[in-house]
Design a protein that fits this description.
By secondary structure, this protein is mainly α. It has a single domain, classed as 3-Layer(aba) Sandwich (Rossmann fold), CATH 3.40.50. The chain starts with a helix and ends with a helix.
């Protein structure tokens, strides 16, 4: 998310357990890569060096990152806690 917040593309492997592969639309905001596929990584780096691709993907990444703020996270978390408290 920190890369997205600065208008940069994300990349992650498709076996990631931290959720990034679920947030990145491959080829839209960044790339989801096969793990240990160095050739694929090299190709995606080559493609993403184009100024047009950087601007397009970086812009999409920044827009998507706007939905993941600390304030929104805490609001959702507090809402969840309130739901749990209401069940008691």
């Amino acid at each position: 998310m920190s890369a997205r917040g600065h208008g940069l593309r994300d990349s992650c492997d498709n076996e990631s357990k931290h959720g990034a592969s679920e947030l990145i639309r491959d080829g839209e905001e960044g790339y989801v890569l096969e793990r240990h596929e160095v050739g694929e990584l090299a190709e995606k780096v080559r493609i993403s060096l184009s100024a047009d691709k950087k601007a397009t993907m970086g812009g999409r990444a920044a827009i998507k990152a706007d939905g993941f703020t600390v304030a929104k996270h805490f609001a959702a978390l507090l809402g969840l806690y309130q739901e749990i408290m209401d069940l008691k």
